[in-house]
Amino acid sequence: MPTGLFDSKAITVLTNSMDLRAARHKLLTSNIANQETPGYRAVDINFEDELRRREGGAPFVDLARTSRGHMTGYYGSSAPRVLDRATDLPGFDGNSVGIEAEMARLSENTLMYTVSSRLLKGKFNGLMNAIKEGGR
Fold first, then answer.
1. Which of 63, 66, 107, 129 lies 20 to 30 angstroms, CA to CA, from 91?
2. How many Cα neighbours within 13 Å face the side chain of 136?
3. Radius of gyration over every alpha carbon of the chain, rounded to an integer in angstroms
4. Which residue has better confidence, 26 or 123?
5. Exposed (0-12), middle (13-18) or buried (19+): which is 109, by Cβ within 10 Å?
6. Across residues 88-107, what is the average pLDDT?
7. Buried b / exposed e across 64-84, counting CB within 10 Å, b at 16+?
8. Which residues contact 75 (CB under 8 A, 6 or more apart)?
9. What is the pTM of this model?
10. Residue 38: is it exposed, middle or buried by C-beta count within 10 angstroms (0-12/13-18/19+)?
11. CA–CA distance, 73 with 78 (Å, rounded to integer)
12. Taking a C-beta distance cutoff of 8 angstroms, is the pair 94, 35 a contact?
């Protein structure tokens, strides 16, 4: 089986991009859900750094945790590092979620996910056309 047909750099980048966008979507929706929770700190990932880390070819090895108090592994882990985002404008209750900014980030993230998925679909459609039309 020709593996070179499917291990394109573009497919890898788009797949990693979609994985990271999905992870970021969960964090942003969690921020929105906790917009009125006193003391809640907004979280996010640094998308560009995480994508660069995945493209760097670091080995993905899950670190063993023997206690819930242990930190999760970052380097070498496939999970993106979750960051406590610097506050937009902290409220009097210590909550750092600004709903307008979160909604804007969520919209941007959704748009970028959609773009990545359409590009990936186009890539696979091109491969499918090559397979179907290759013999003609």
1. 107
2. 5
3. 19
4. 26
5. buried
6. 86
7. eeeeeeeeebeeebeebeeee
8. 58
9. 0.76
10. exposed
11. 9
12. no
